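G., the chain you wanted modeled:
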Amino acid sequence: MQRALQLARRGIGRVEPNPMVGCVIVRGQTVVGEGFHTAFGRDHAEIEALRDAGADAEGATLYVNLEPCCHHGKTGPCTEAILAAKIARVVVANRDPFPQVAGTGLALLRRHGIEVTTEVVAEEAEILNAPYFHYLQNKRPWVIAKWAMSLDGKMATSGGDSRWISNPHSRSIVHQMRGRVDAILVGRRTAELDDPQLTARPPGPRTAVRIVLDSMAQLPTDSKLVCSAREVPLMVVTGEEAPPEARSRLERAGCEVICLEPQQELSSLHQLLKRLGERQMTNLLVEGGGEVLGSFFDAGLINEVHAFIAPVLIGGKGVAPLTGRGAERMESVTQLEHLRTEQIDGDWYISGRFPRKK
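Predicted structure as tokens:
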């Protein structure tokens, strides 16, 4: 199963909104077939592994990190292929919560006499596909917060200058992240101060939609974001108070302008994530600034954090990574889980996930 997970990870950024899945077929003590889901719309991991195994699949054990599908989608049911190959045993890490599967794939295999074992390396497999499970449950993307900051907790000087706090190696990791997500989001002030491109360099497997929160539609037409809007998608999110001509100006430049109207039951950020979910976006990278990150934090919408801490000091009234209300007492602070810490050419790279809501 560990090998299946290793294979599954090769699909990151290529298979979404599908899950990452790997498959290993073993006969006796010998691996006779391997495969993974390579891209959205292509064959599933089980099909790839069965093709690799050929006739050796008969009587073998199939290890896969997610329940085999049993319905017709972009590809045929994996359960049919497993039965046709005369697999004797199937070992699964996680049940697939997708409504057209949700345990029926496992039940079908059992009805046909195949031995089924579940919950093998389940936690690690669930961590791998957390954005997929989150999307199915909440119908909105998994939110990844990223920032670089100084040792004294500032992500920019008092004048807004932030280039560059982190080192080139740290920034290359951020570009890799950009190349595997569906969308990248910043606030208008960050867009104006940094004038970023918000693209992955070099390009990754996905081209992310760039999103700017700009309530009054004031993003300059000569910014790098707007100038490249016809080549790389740019979504400008405004409020109903934005002047119609300001919205039209951005639309004429090639931007997609979305206006969020006040709703009592949903905050503007919840509205936006709902809209992104309707577009089957499963991963959103929020890069700043401090007010935007703080708003996502206060709304309880952040799922994962990637922070780069550089051995530099800014002092003064520099910008903090998370503003907003925050916690009033230490007993209310958020303790990250699944922590990873790494030193990157002098920077410290810390990542972790928010606890799952009960």
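The CA atoms of residues 41 and 74 lie 6 Å apart.

Shout if anything looks off.
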